[in-house]
Amino acid sequence: MISPRAGRSGELPRAAGPLAATLVLLAALLAGPVAHADFAKGRAAFEHGDYALAYTELIEDAQNGNAEAEFMIGEMASAGLGTPRSYALATEWYRLAAAKGYRPADVTLGLLYLHGAGSEDEPTRVAPDPVKAAAYLKIAADAGDAEAQSLVGQLYTEGNGVPKDPTLAKHYTLAAANHGIAAAEYNAGLLILNGAGPAADLAEAYKWFALAAQVQYPGAEQNRRFVMGRMTPEQLKQAEALTSAFHAAP
Hints:
Radius of gyration: 22 Å
Number of helices: 13
CATH architecture of the largest domain: Alpha Horseshoe
Helix content: 55-70%
Strand content: under 5%
Mean pLDDT: 87
Number of domains: 2
Largest sheet: none
């Protein structure tokens, strides 16, 4: 959540309009490199919370195209750590990192566009954009990121940023659930119950709710008990065996 400085003062100029705002972003992204930068030193400073030093050490690598440095500069810009806060500039750094295949940047951009960033009167605000959110999250999901898979499954369930698609919703949700993502486990239980009607696999639904309940996911224990109340003793025995046998994929 970082934003590179636009000038030596560290102040980000106020943009008078769209063109001025674009010029500010370009100036910050393309400003000359800082002398004696050291990526390893910058990353260590970032991890230890010394963001002023991290920014100084990482900005040259970011400007020279290092995707991890671009992402970390984006993180600092977004949070105002070591540099003035700018959601718009953070977004540009994330985009640069994502374009190089740095998957954490895709997830971050997906979340940023899903929820938006900044208040209505924030000059660098990024407005919610579910279509962009879905696009970035799907890239990460298809690359195997379990958190992104969970979110994409939810987007397909709701038709948020993508058309409603129960088949794809189940595909992504189960992929994430099999990696032990609690929200996906809970949603998998719901999809099984709501999508199959009387033919629902109660043992499978029970398993997912029970697994989510183990980490106190909201509503999971209540739903586990609801499903249990509809099961025969034999079904419950099967469901408990499925739950005990589950091991999340790495």
